[in-house]
From TrEMBL:
Cross-referenced Gene3D superfamilies: RutC-like (3.30.1330.40)
Family annotation (InterPro entries): Endoribo_LPSP/chorism_mut-like, RutC-like_sf
Pfam families noted in UniProt: YjgF_endoribonc
Domain Endoribonuclease L-PSP/chorismate mutase-like residues, every copy: 7-145
Taxonomy, superkingdom: Bacteria
Signal peptide as annotated in the record: none
Protein species of origin: Azorhizobium caulinodans (strain ATCC 43989 / DSM 5975 / JCM 20966 / LMG 6465 / NBRC 14845 / NCIMB 13405 / ORS 571)
Name this protein carries in UniProt: Endoribonuclease L-PSP
Length: 154
């Protein structure tokens, strides 16, 4: 029998945080048919500390990758709340990553790899996805990174 997603998270030393409530007029996720759309998750850790700043102007790619990984952990936490069971994830379909970056910063894909790599670690081949990585002039609360997801579910 294959390893469950929860077992894989434990093996990686990842404890899912309690997702933060929306701070504006939206819901954390919407399920329609077999697709789960998860609202953008920012780079906040389980203790509530937000990774802030601009990539290329105070933050380097490694800091950005770590921030994107936090976004991924928060996306998985939202999946858990929406589905109850992470083994209901059939496939990570698409990620859209937003990088708070200086105008001359060009390594957005390397930053968003922090989330993409996490999803492959946790979900295996089901974690391979289509993706966009976009540079943004600013993100809410000066978050370093925000990532949203589309997930196929059982």
């Amino acid at each position: 029998m294959s390893q469950s997603v929860e077992q894989k998270l434990a093996e990686l030393g990842i404890t899912l945080p309690t997702p933060t409530a929306p701070l504006a007029n939206y819901v954390p996720s919407v399920r329609t048919g077999n697709l789960l759309f998860i609202s953008g998750q920012v780079s906040i850790d389980g203790a509530g500390k937000l990774s802030t700043g601009k990539l290329g102007a105070g933050l380097d790619v490694d800091a950005g990758r770590a921030a994107a990984r936090l976004c991924g952990i928060n996306l998985i936490a939202q999946m858990k709340v929406a589905l109850g069971d992470l083994d209901k994830v059939v496939r990570i379909v698409k990620l859209v990553g937003f990088v708070n970056s200086a105008p001359d910063f060009v390594d957005h894909p390397k930053v968003i790899n922090g989330c993409s790599d996490l999803f492959v670690e946790v979900f295996g081949d089901k974690g391979r996805h289509a993706r966009s990585a976009v540079g943004i002039a600013a993100l809410p609360f000066d978050a370093a990174v925000e990532v949203e997801a589309i997930v196929e579910v059982a």
